[in-house]
Amino acid sequence: MPRPIRRRLVVATALVAATAAAVTVTSSAGAFDSAQAARAVVEGGQAKNVILLIGDGMGDSEITLARDYTVGADGRLNMDGFPLTGAYTTYAVHEDGTPDYVTDSAASGTGWATGVKTVNGRISKTPGTDKAVPTLLELAQKRGYATGSVTTAELTDATPAVLASHATDRSCQGPADMAKCPADTLAAGGPGSIAEQSVNHRVDVLLGGGGKRFDQKVTDGAYRGLTVTEQARKLGYQVVTDSAGLRGVKPGRPVLGLFAPGNVPVEWTGRPAAVGGTDPQRCVTSNPNRPAGTPSLADSVARAIELLEAKQRRKHSERGFFLQIEGASIDKQDHAADPCGQIGETAAFDRAVELARAYAARHPDTLVVTTADHGHSSQIVPLEAAPPGLSSTLVTDEGQRLKVNYSTNTPGQSQEHTGTQVRIAAQGPQAYRVLGVTDQTDLFTTISEALRLR
């Protein structure tokens, strides 16, 4: 259904005026004059670059938990420092367009990637007719922008998939995974699996996990009999599997970084929540099961920006880049009711936010947006509470006890997403559009306007 964009812009303009008049704005450099700061970030104009950071499942509870544990209740994370903050709604739709109040990552990602809401499980296709809809990445490529996607999930997982593929079902990640997408197969004249589509799009930088998907063999078409990784090499990709390889890639050719067979291992570990709670615990901040040479999310982001910038310099292009970054396992550890894993991934994501904001401070023609795709299950509850589900008690960096509860599903089952609105914050050209309460699909308009994609 069409979005009331004009009404939203009128509301946003009023909020801009209010912001300039009254809001005290802070940045990584500290507090400064509110009117001057507001003017610097609420002016419209065109962006040369856009960096979109998605904390998967990173609702307000997940942000608060990471803040309380790592920097204290009175501290602030890097993502708390954006000058303009709003909230957006995340609901999916049924095939008839009626609301489905709790979204999954595929439908939510499709919302910001295409501006169109869809059914849960679908990747950048319409809800009723299952037709492909152009994505931000595809539009940016057509306008001459360099493009990149960095994730801690498999590169074929829902959030990275929404940018560079169109699939009836999110499970259709590799050539051997097409059971739910018969019309999308190469044999049926479709575009193939998510892995095949991602490399066929010649995205300049693809960094994440999912090596096992790219190791599957293509079953039809020009690359039949080759693995998707071999297909990528035929298309000119430099394929790397660790930090050393990533440092050694040369600008000018696309890069495919596959840092794990599945999801990239998490940074922190600890005891998961349990029925009746756990003894107070401190999180282990180095995961022994994370292989040496696995780049951090921030390291991958830093290299991605270098490569995207270098490509545009070599082309002598006036256009910059569009880069999406996902902290994927905030969600995955929430599903597992693992507070330490969840906090560690939020902290890793926050370091990527710090890097993106530092880049924007040097390049003020960069729009930086951070948000989530949906809310999740963790809740901070009183120490004396006796939740009926899973809970864990942590000892924070402040030396205080904090109890986390997970009760969105039966113990032993995967914890569920929630339908709450989530935070969205921004700085740079068109950042004013995140003010107030908007919808996920409005983020498509924000980025489209910033890069003049339409």
Indicate the percent of residues in helices. Answer: 25-40%
| Gap from first CA to last CA | 19 Å
Contiguous runs where pLDDT drops below 50 for at least 5 residues: 1-34
Enumerate how many helices there are, as a single number.
14
Rg over C-alpha atoms, rounded to the nearest angstrom:
21 Å
Instruction: Please state the second-level CATH architecture.
Output: 3-Layer(aba) Sandwich
**Widest sheet: strand ordering:** 9-10-8-7-12-3-13-17-4-18
* Record field, number of beta strands: 18
The dominant shape is globular
**What's the CATH superfamily, by name?**
Alkaline Phosphatase, subunit A
Integer count of domains: 1
**What is the CATH class name?**
Alpha Beta
Query: What fraction of residues sit in β-strands?
Result: 15-25%
Largest sheet properties: 10 strands, mixed
Structural class determined from secondary elements:
alpha/beta
Mean pLDDT: 92
Structure write-up:
The protein is of the alpha/beta class and 454 residues long. 33% of the residues lie in helices and 19% in strands. The protein has helices at 5-22, 34-42, 60-70, 105-114, 136-142, 158-164, 194-200, 211-214, 228-234, 243-248, 297-315, 329-335, 339-362, 440-451; strands at residues 25-27, 30-32, 49-55, 84-89, 92-93, 99-100, 146-154, 205-209, 238-240, 255-258, 274-275, 321-327, 366-372, 378-381, 390-395, 401-406, 422-427, 437-439. The strands form 4 sheets. Strands 9-10-8-7-12-3-13-17-4-18 form a 10-stranded mixed β-sheet, with helices on both faces. It has a 4-stranded antiparallel β-sheet with strand order 11-15-16-14, with helices on one face. Helix 1 (5-22) runs antiparallel to helix 2 and helix 3 crosses helix 13 (339-362). The longest helix is centred in the C-terminal third of the chain and has 24 residues, at 339-362. The protein is globular and about 60 Å long. The model is unreliable at 1-34 (pLDDT under 50).
